[in-house]
Known about the structure:
Layout lengths: L3 E4 L1 H9 L2 H14 L13 E2 L2 E2 L2 E2 L3 E6 L4 E8 L4 E9 L4 H13 L2
Parallel strand pairs: 1-7
Antiparallel strand pairs: 2-5, 3-4, 5-6, 6-7
Amino acid sequence: MNWSVEYLPEAVKDLKKLGRDRQTLVLKAIAKVKTNPLPAREGGYGKPLGNKSGNDLTGFFKIKLRDAGIRVVYKLVRTETQMLIVVIGARADDEVYDAAENRKIKHGL
Length: 109
């Protein structure tokens, strides 16, 4: 079963900032994960986040595109089988987790 995918407005901007090749990689990864974005312990692809560099991202998950140096942070909305993309960004210096924490607070996630 595919989950629906929604994006925060900031995540759409993150995606548009990437080059066309990187956008394709990210969208393919999201398409793969949306088939089963549940945590790995429940048989899915989800890699849970917890406290990262002082950011409490418990309940959020990540998609790592190691070769491209990109991470995607998402949250599951289980009541609607919805995957909410929170941030898409470079892996450098955990800035993606800082952005995720800020957006979590801003959007009351």
